[in-house]
């Protein structure tokens, strides 16, 4: 599992330094070191979407913000601030942010 940090954010920017717009009123970032959507040989290690807009009351958008020099940054835009439970799973290795479901 690569080293990672999950935290709230007020804004997110890509490698150019320009802010990346993500829908929602609150932001979370998940930054991974030594990770990429490409394998070292240049083949894709991730082929899913990079700008997801689920139809949930809490999660408004999940977007790939940065994939540069083995730094991978995903942003999650929420309707309101809510703290996720963070889990590490294997088969394949992944980090899961489990946000609470509103009543």
What features would you describe in this structure?
The protein has one domain (4-98). It starts with a strand and ends in a 5-residue tail after the last strand. The chain has strands spanning 4-9, 26-33, 51-52, 59-68, 71-78, 85-89, 94-98. The strands form two sheets. A five-stranded antiparallel β-sheet has the order 1-2-5-4-3, with no helix packed on it. It has a two-stranded antiparallel ribbon with strand order 6-7. Helix content is 0%, strand content 43%. With 103 residues, it is mainly beta. The protein has no helices and seven strands.
* Assembly state of the chains shown: single chain
Order of helices and strands: EEEEEEE
What structural category do the secondary elements indicate?
A: mainly beta
Tell me the total number of β-strands. 7
Mean pLDDT: 92
Q: Proportion of β residues?
A: 35-45%
The Rg value, from CA coordinates, equals: 14 Å
* Largest sheet, spatial ordering of strands: 1-2-5-4-3
Put simply, the count of helices is 0
Provide the helix percentage: under 10%
Feature tags:
globular, mainly beta, 5-stranded antiparallel sheet, two-stranded antiparallel ribbon, 0% helix, 103 residues
Please give the structural blueprint.
Blueprint: E1 4-9, E2 26-33, E3 51-52, E4 59-68, E5 71-78, E6 85-89, E7 94-98
Antiparallel strand pairs: 1-2, 2-5, 3-4, 4-5, 6-7
Summarize the structure.
The chain is mostly beta strands. It has strands at residues 4-9, 26-33, 51-52, 59-68, 71-78, 85-89, 94-98.
């Amino acid at each position: 599992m690569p080293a990672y940090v999950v935290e709230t954010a007020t804004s997110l920017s890509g490698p150019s330094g320009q802010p990346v717009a993500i829908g929602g009123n609150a932001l979370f970032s998940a930054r991974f070191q030594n990770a990429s959507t490409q394998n070292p040989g240049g083949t894709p290690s991730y082929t899913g979407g990079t700008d997801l807009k689920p139809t949930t009351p809490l999660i408004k958008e999940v977007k790939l913000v940065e994939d540069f020099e083995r730094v991978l940054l995903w942003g999650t835009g929420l309707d309101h601030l809510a703290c996720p439970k963070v889990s590490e799973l294997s088969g394949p290795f992944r980090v899961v942010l489990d946000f609470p479901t509103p009543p």
